[in-house]
Write a structure and sequence with these properties.
6 helices
Length: about 200
């Protein structure tokens, strides 16, 4: 259905777990469900048309009753250090503050070629679940404290035609250890509900 005030399709049905019919799903998406199933992690799924911006996620947020995280893929000026930053969808990203906290100057958005190389995902589909493809730990995960303080978090299954809701504790205590990744907690300034 096309909702009034939006220009993208949202199936408002909340599904538990992976799609029953996966014939039209990409392999990278199915791999995320395989990982979650292997770890026996419960999650809800909402299917929709590609969401072009974080603002387009607002209705998805409302249906899932969460705040979909921004997942920003960053690098240093020399393109030798790479970061995946999770922060609340409504929170502003402040480069200077983050650079100071992690000791990496001149952070910028990394080229999409690195995103594909390290995470096997494309722009618009960046997800913490893409770290399962980073076998050599080239990407350091950074999580804003406000994401960690929520019981649930939302992300894409490595493609932006679905959104998932799961417990934050499952990400921290089960998923990250299983894919051999740790995280650094950061504290970006500003009110979580301020809009960019």
């Amino acid at each position: 259905m096309i909702d009034a005030g939006t220009s993208f399709y949202i199936d408002k049905t909340l599904y538990n777990g992976r799609p029953a019919n996966s014939s039209d799903r990409l392999a990278k998406e199915l791999c995320t469900y395989d990982l979650l199933d292997r770890l026996q992690i419960p999650y809800q799924r909402l299917d929709h048309a590609p969401l072009p911006t974080i603002d387009a996620c607002r209705e998805v947020d409302s249906i899932l009753n969460i705040d979909i995280c921004k997942n920003l893929f960053l690098c240093n000026a020399k393109k030798t250090e790479f970061y995946l930053l999770l922060l609340p969808g409504k929170k502003k990203f402040r480069t200077a503050s983050l650079s100071k906290q992690i000791g990496s100057s001149r952070l910028s958005f990394a080229d999409h070629d690195f995103m594909i190389q390290f995470l096997n995902i494309t722009p618009g589909s960046v997800s913490v679940l893409g770290l399962m493809n980073d076998k050599d730990n080239k990407v350091q995960l950074l999580i804003d404290k406000d994401v960690l303080s929520n019981e649930f978090f939302g992300c894409h299954p490595c493609i932006n035609t679905s959104s998932l809701k799961m417990k934050t504790a499952d990400l921290i205590n089960r998923i990250l250890p299983a894919i051999n990744h740790s995280f650094i907690q950061v504290d970006l300034p500003g009110e979580p509900d301020s809009i960019q």
